Amino acid sequence: MIREATADDLESLVYLENSSFETDKISRRSFRYLLSRANATTFVDEENGKVRAYSIILYNSATSHARLYSLVVGSEYRGLGIGQALLLASEQNAVQNECISMRLEVRRDNATAIRLYQKNGYKQIGILDDYYEDHMGAIHYEKEIVPHLNPEMVKVPFYQQTLDFTCGPAAVMMAMRTLNPNFRLNKTEELRLWRESTTIFMTSGHGGCGPFGLALAVYNRGFDVDIYLKDKNALFVDSVRSQQKKEIIKFVQADFLSEIRKLPIKVHYTPINLQTMEKEFNKGHIPIVLISSYRIYHEKAPHWVVVTGFNERYIYVHDSFVDVKEGESVADSINIPILKKEFGRMSQYGKTTQRAVLIIKNRTAS
């Protein structure tokens, strides 16, 4: 019988884990967290009061990918179809949680698990070298668990930001490369864009990039750009406490805006809705959207992403930040599906619910 695990299963889970692995074991403390507070579901297969296997599915409240974190069958119960049943139960749970795909990693030398996943329609999307404690690599798999969702996405190339504060430059670089295949994607250009468009003191440490600076940098590289804002108030002022820093933010943004007024850059002081954004996208224009990273990374900081596609329920984005510390790879940041209703809540920042979107286009003849 497959059922959802409870705190009473802790000892059985720890026993299965320790008897199945020599390295990379989930600790008792981690199991306790997964069963109580984590955004996760744990299933167990039980017969006559004996827990024979388990699976753990991790969820991100902001995206529509599920991750099969672990699937373990006790050695004496293998070959009975238990792993297959747990995998199907895990996928069904992910569908119920409005996910459209399941991702997982498996050791490159685990032939049995590889056969199971491939038989069930999982496709290899990457190789992760030196992934486990014993330096064994992993194969990264993904399966669309809602087959009828087949988004027609523009081929936006992916660029991983190299610094914590360059999400804005990375996002506009991906957009510009989409529109012009000859545009360079490298760290030199990333830092040039940051220097040109940074808003000083936006956060502690290095400053990040606001919409005015990014728009100017994009225009100066031969592209047209429209800016959509919620209102005329200065952005990010609430992100600092010092009055002096607040004044500097306002001054820098006013200076950017004075330059923009000399150019054919349209500034709309009204938020763009998803329907309009999708229409722009279908024209071949690329939206860059400011979101609150709290809903993804639980950090209170503004963050730029680039839109890569739409369908009836989802909007897709590339996120240039790859959270390596949490075991993510580039594949986790490419074409991330986000429910439209969730994206609406995500695409605002701070207590004043600031909104900012750039629509980047090829230059039209004036």
Please characterize this protein's 3D structure:
With 366 residues, the protein is an alpha+beta fold. The protein has two domains: 2-144, 3-Layer(aba) Sandwich (Aminopeptidase); 167-362, Cathepsin B, Chain A. It is built from eleven helices and 16 strands. The strands form three sheets. It has a seven-stranded mixed beta sheet, sandwiched between helices. α1 (10-20) crosses α2 (28-36) and α5 packs across α6. The longest helix has 18 residues, at 243-260. It is elongated. It starts with a strand and ends with a strand.
What's the layout of helices and strands?
Layout: E1 2-4, H1 10-20, H2 28-36, E2 40-47, E3 50-59, E4 65-73, H3 82-96, E5 101-107, H4 111-119, E6 123-128, E7 138-144, H5 167-179, H6 187-197, E8 198-199, E9 208-209, H7 211-219, E10 223-229, H8 243-260, E11 266-268, H9 274-282, E12 286-292, H10 294-297, E13 302-310, E14 314-318, E15 336-339, H11 340-346, E16 356-362
Helix pairs in contact: 1-2, 5-6, 6-7, 7-8
Short description:
The chain contains eleven helices and 16 strands.
> Which spans of ≥5 residues are poorly predicted at pLDDT below 50?
none
Q: Please tell me what the overall shape is.
A: elongated
CATH H-level homologous superfamily name of the largest domain: Cysteine proteinases
What is the N-to-C succession of helices and strands?
A: EHHEEEHEHEEHHEEHEHEHEHEEEHE
Output the structural class: alpha+beta
What is the CATH T-level topology of the largest domain?
A: Cathepsin B, Chain A
N-to-C span: 69 Å
